[in-house]
């Protein structure tokens, strides 16, 4: 009985599939009585096929456009902004690129993967934006038109100069982070070397670890070695790129140990301990300096603005008139004192041990 039910179910499913296939519309030339009718039917069929092809091509184009837009959205805004500026100001950008010396070297040191011409376009775009923002800010503060134009010009120059020095600032920041992570990377390498691992494998392990910029730089060392450079050339290129005394000491010790022999793991352990001790001493000096600057910062950012406002109010009451225009007072409170605070914070940040 079970076998009979199975056979019955199979036949039912087979019949259902047969009906589905029979219901699918198929194109065929109808059998007409004359040749003209068959030709008209053939032309109609050809039009339907061409219509379906055009619809398929349109769908493919739409998919390509959607994929292109996804890639555009994933691109950094700075890259897209620079490309837009380059599209409209290609001539001035090329002239500026040829006049700025050492930009390609600064970009290489900062690990900014952008052609010099595109970066100059970004510089110009940021400068234009800074100039417009400065002019609008001054104009909204009810300053005279000539003063507003001067503020806009200063904003343009300031934005351009800042972007010109930005790669150098990034490079110095990367060097500081490399020096800070150097003791940990050296201990990592020394532990692997003492376990019998080769120097290249130790560098690869540091590159795969999460030590920040130093892992990225070690990955570049390995990439140079894969492209045909020797171990010594890759390390010397790393030393030249960083331009750091700490990195130079490490590179010289590694090359000396590899060339003349020696216990490289012990050398790296000793270097790591020396760098850690130097960092602790710098940290103690930094804390002492911050304790002295903290009082000055509180006075300039809290006490001085309060005394300034009180003095203006007292002078206005005594003279029965405004001693200072409201726009100037607003500029002092909203721009001057916050700028002083930022300068002090920047000084404290710059004094941080590297």
Ordered list of secondary-structure elements with their pairings:
Blueprint: H1 2-23, H2 35-74, H3 77-88, H4 90-99, H5 103-109, H6 116-140, H7 145-194, H8 199-208, H9 213-226, H10 231-242, H11 245-260, H12 264-319, H13 326-350
Helix pairs in contact: 3-6, 4-6, 5-7, 6-7, 7-8, 7-12, 8-9, 9-10, 10-11, 11-12, 12-13
Summary keywords:
13 helices, mainly alpha, 354 residues
Average predicted confidence as pLDDT: 81
Q: Kindly name the structural category.
A: mainly alpha
Overall body shape:
flat
**Strand composition percent:** under 5%
Instruction: Give me the oligomer status.
Output: single chain
Radius of gyration: 36 Å
Distance between the termini: 87 Å
Q: Give the helix level as a range of percent.
A: over 70%
Spell the H/E element sequence: HHHHHHHHHHHHH
- Biggest β-sheet, characterized? none
Count of helical segments?
Answer: 13
Uncertain residue ranges: 17-27
Total count of strands? 0
């Amino acid at each position: 009985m079970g076998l009979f039910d199975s056979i019955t179910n199979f036949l039912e499913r087979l019949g259902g599939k047969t009906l589905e296939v029979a219901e699918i519309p198929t194109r065929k030339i109808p059998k007409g009585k004359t040749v003209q009718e068959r030709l008209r039917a053939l032309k109609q069929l050809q039009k339907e096929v061409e219509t379906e092809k055009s619809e398929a091509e349109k769908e493919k184009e739409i998919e390509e456009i959607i994929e292109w837009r996804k890639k555009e959205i994933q691109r950094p805004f700075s890259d897209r902004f620079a490309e837009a500026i380059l599209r409209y100001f290609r001539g001035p950008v090329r002239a500026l690129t040829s006049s700025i010396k050492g930009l390609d070297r600064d970009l290489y040191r900062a690990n900014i993967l952008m052609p010099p011409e595109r970066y100059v376009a970004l510089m110009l775009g940021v400068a234009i934006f800074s100039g417009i923002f400065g002019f609008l800010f001054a104009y909204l503060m009810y300053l005279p038109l000539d003063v507003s134009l001067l503020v806009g010009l200063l904003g343009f120059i300031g934005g351009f100069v800042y972007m010109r020095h930005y790669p150098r600032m990034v490079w110095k920041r990367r060097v500081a982070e490399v020096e800070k992570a150097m003791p940990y990377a050296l201990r990592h390498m020394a532990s692997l070397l003492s376990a019998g691992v080769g120097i290249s494998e130790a560098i690869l392990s540091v590159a795969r670890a999460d030590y920040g910029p130093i892992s990225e730089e070690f990955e570049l060392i390995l990439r140079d070695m894969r492209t045909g450079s020797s171990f010594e050339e890759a390390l010397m290129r790393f030393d030249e790129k960083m331009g750091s005394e700490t990195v130079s000491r490490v590179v010289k010790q590694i090359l000396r140990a590899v060339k003349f022999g020696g216990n490289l793991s012990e050398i790296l352990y000793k270097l790591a301990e020396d760098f850690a001790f130097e960092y602790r001493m710098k940290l103690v000096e930094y804390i002492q300096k911050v304790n002295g600057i903290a009082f000055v910062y509180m006075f300039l950012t809290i006490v001085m603005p309060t005394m300034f406002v009180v003095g203006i109010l007292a002078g206005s009451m005594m003279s029965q008139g405004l001693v200072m225009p409201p726009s100037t007072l607003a500029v002092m409170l909203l721009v001057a004192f916050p700028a002083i605070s930022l300068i002090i914070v920047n000084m404290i940040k710059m004094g941080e041990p590297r």
